[in-house]
Amino acid sequence: MKLLQHDKIEETINNSELISRDLSWLKFNERVFDQIKKDKRNIFEKFKFLAIAASNLDEFFMIRVGSLYNYLDYDKVRIDYSGLREDDFKKKLMIESQNFHKRLQRHFVKELLFKTQEAGFILSNVRNLQEEEQKTIKEYFYKAVYPMLTPMVFDGYHTFPILMNKLLIFGVVTIGPGEKKDNKKLSFVQIPSNIPRFFELEREDMMIYVPIEEMIREHIVSLFRNVTIESINLFRITRNGDFTLEESEDMDTNFLEEVKRKLNERKTGRVVRIEIEEGYSKWMVNLLKQRWTLNDDSIFKIERRSLMDFSGLWQIIGSKRFKDKIPATPRPVPPLSYPEAASEDIFQVLKHKDVLLHHPYNDMEPILELLDKAADDPHVMAIKMTIYRLAKNSRIVGALLKAVENGKHVSVLFEVKARFDEENNIREAKKMQKAGCFVIYGVSNFKTHTKLMLIVKKEENRVTRYVHVGSGNYNEETSRIYTDIGLLTTNEILANDVSEFFNVITGHSAPTNYQNLITSPRDMRNNLIEFIRIEAENASKGIPAGIFIKINSLEDSEFIFALYKASQAGVRIKLIVRGICCLRPGRKGLSENIEVISIVGDFLEHSRIYHFHNNENYRTYVGSADAMVRSFDKRLESLFKVENEFLQKQLMNILRYNLWDNENAYVMQENGQYISKQPREGEEPFNIHQKFFELTPDMIEDVRLIDG
């Protein structure tokens, strides 16, 4: 019997030795969605994860679906890891996306909405309000909202307006007086992003949140006088936000303008998705589909009882009224390698010991303290660092500006291609350049993702270099919710490596071999694959062998096939991959010895650790790079080797604790599905997002990842 096309697509996917990057990402967002279902979370936590899952899906359509349309629209060939060509893959991707979208909407309507009242708030439309409350709404609308609304008609005399990405928009179908019913006109009313998402009313001990679109819907007739309104349709579009910065012949002169031009293109990029309320005008939707060359699978329907754009829920989650409702994160604890953190001068400490920071369990304060002191210290001569993402009102920028004022040389590489942070980075970079910093706006066509800081200080008859290398951004805000690892050191070998790498970044230099640093795009893939090959060789000789890796994403096919070969040689391989994983674990004859888990919980797992058993002569590397094509070929990345025995044990324990977790862990199956890991019978719950706050040095003394 001939297989249906859907069955052929599924068969192709299941027979592939690799899992689709995009389908794997959707499975990651399923794990985020799963947080909403956990009984231990209250309504505010559930709303938080709902907003995160919805924002993730927005970015997925802007970047990944947008990238797919770059192939579809220009008839370019794209073969996914699943083995599917671009058209069949889009069909599969849209089916999965539609199903996820429906589950998200259904859960909000059926499981969450009725629980809000017991938490002290209600989401309400205007007609369900009390009479006095409706008057308040009406007054607010005409005084504050009405003047900001602009109806934009599309007809033979008016061009199609530019509709903005991710804004709520009303499409209003009207018929003029005396005109025939089929002589319809379509007007658009965009809701400006600077109007609060909800109007807040206080009713005794209850907060009432009225969505801005319900307020406008109730009074929209005031924008369309003396015409018949046939339908009012709330919708939202997502545009292609994927762009590639082409290397310019005159990069120094035109680079920033090229970035700005590409940013502006996001505003008018190709529409890849329409979200629209049920009961919409088919005439209007057909017009939009034709205008934007979309099929029905790109139309995502929203239940009338639901809410469009769950990211608006942050207004409720962040309300001061409910600030005590989201469980507080425990206070950071001192680093295991620096228990006296608040009592000693950081410069003096680092002369005698290395300090490993594990955020958010350890505060970012030692890094900020080092930078603040360096800015004021008359003996500090230079500060160099890379910046990828910054916090608002960043102390980092403040310290660097102070250092320049105090006459120090400051070199900063601002990565202006950091996705969705481009404008902020350009603004901050220009501020620093104007103050006298030496600012580099990225390196050629490579994105600089490495996280490095170098402070050069003259002390008596010698110069000491203070180094920070890490897996996370220099961002005080995200350091409280992202798990990351950083090393503060004056180790001369690593300082030489970092100095050399800065020369490569800021000048025209081809590096010699580094001793404790692995960098991309030149060496990283080859070096890591060589470490994998050595483990496979050891296993084939009967020598204990093991590979333990914790990363955000695993996508590079060469790296994956090296792991497959190691598995076939008998190497025990444990992978902790938060998001995308294109490797297929546990397949007979291919990957029986590979296990994959994903940790999704209160903190976003962002650290990267590569640990190779190496016959107990351990190789342990930490840094900014995931095992992805972009990390190995298209970015400046770094991994640094940790040789200090105590710090190495700490890193091994991080891996061990991740593998022990039975509250936040999901076990990946051969088919790409994930099963939540639960405590076994008689086993105590183990939640790493709590346990790392309780860690003491003696707990890591006997750490081992494999026996023998």
TrEMBL record:
Mg(2+) binds at R389, R419. This is Polyphosphate kinase. The keyword Magnesium applies. HAMAP family: Polyphosphate_kinase. Its EC number is 2.7.4.1. Residues 444-478 form the PLD phosphodiesterase domain. One of its GO terms (molecular function) is polyphosphate kinase activity.
